[in-house]
Specification:
With about 100 residues, this protein is an alpha+beta fold. Helix content is about 25%, strand content about 25%.
Length: about 100
């Protein structure tokens, strides 16, 4: 018998891994289980695709992870160390 209750389903590629209840605990459990998969997607019977992850998502076209790209961007935006910008203390100036 097919259940008419809304559900979340966890897929790895084209393989159905598991079905979860359609509530916050079900979504949390699906996300936790999906964490260890390299190609995972969570679908809702109400909303279609809810979440998707693939190992290719870890690297962008430049070959950097999101963390490396963010660090590079912030450093060039003035969020580097004082040594990067030549500030060595207030005693450098004669007032």
């Amino acid at each position: 018998m097919i259940s008419k209750e809304p559900t979340y389903t966890l897929w790895s590629g084209a393989t159905l891994i598991r079905t979860f209840e359609h509530n916050r605990n079900g979504l949390d459990a699906a996300l936790e289980e999906a964490y260890d998969l390299h190609n995972a997607a969570i679908y809702s019977s109400r909303d279609d695709l809810v979440w998707k992850y693939s190992a290719e998502d870890e690297r962008n076209e430049c070959g950097m992870t999101d963390v490396e790209a963010d660090a590079d961007t912030l450093a060039s935006a003035g969020y580097g160390t004082d040594e990067d910008y030549g500030y060595y203390g207030d005693d450098c100036y004669d007032y």
